[in-house]
Design a protein that fits this description.
Protein name: Integral membrane protein YggT, involved in response to extracytoplasmic stress (Osmotic shock)
GO cellular component, one term: membrane
Number of helices: 6
Oligomer: single chain
Organism: Orrella dioscoreae
InterPro entries: CCB3/YggT
Order of helices and strands: HHHHHH
Shape: globular
Keywords: Membrane, Transmembrane, Transmembrane helix
Length: 187
Amino acid sequence: MFGDIIRFLLEIAFTLLGAALLARAWFIAVRMHPFHPVVQSINQATNWLVMPLRKILPNTGRIDWACLLAAWLVALVYLVLSWLVSTGSMVPVQLLPAALGAALLTVARWSLNLVLWLTLLQVVLSWVNPAAPMMGLLRTLTAPLLDPLRRILPNMGGIDLSPLALLIIAQVLMMVLARVSYGIFGV
């Protein structure tokens, strides 16, 4: 039971940190204004890890390699700690290549989880308060994912089905990635 609690707390802490790093990379990809309060908060929360890596990997266009590498490193540490809590021993050397791949899949899962939560937040906020200050941020972040779906899905007269489709796609992909990640590394 104690191990389950520690794994749960590890998952929460590392998922939040990984999501913050991925959100930071996403902000650059969609060209969010750097003085937006949410952007500044996430930047301040993740500077301790991103800034040293940025000296090695500078931004190239819309891709923030330092943030992506930081998210991958956080995922790797998360997997190693989860293994340690689950088994009580360090990761065997022969499993390190599998851990590297599983960390990449974990980052992909965190990305999909971020998409899921941002889309859900946008949908709920659009029902409750469509003029909320956060709606601009949410629309900017989700538009690159929702707009292609809007072009494909039929127009239902005032009902936008693209968020529902995106939620279903993200959830299915998260299940597939979780299964593959478990098959590779067992955590």
